[in-house]
Amino acid sequence: MRKSNIFVLIELSKLTESLTTNLLQCKxxxxxxxxxxxxxxxxxxxGELNREWESIYSIVSHKGPRFNERGQIIRNAIANxxxxxxxxxxxxxxxxxxxxxxxxxxxxx
Length: 109
Fold this sequence. Notes:
The chain is built from 6 helices and 2 strands. It is mainly alpha-helical.
């Protein structure tokens, strides 16, 4: 079985350090770390974990970008989607990221 790239392990460790399972803070923490969703390409994950990352990515980006009245993007798809998610939804996403990180760590142990 092909392992995930070491880059994934390093970047997921940084991402999870900044996430929380505190319901009151998880949305803000997830939004603050939104750039990681574009920084970590799914192709660097092993097969099964690739699908998991793509699933998480689709959840946090499905609303698409936010546009102003002139049609210019004023908020990218991830920040816009997270803004519209409930704290419970953000907590679920954070928990999935924590779980994915544990699976990636197991590939390297």
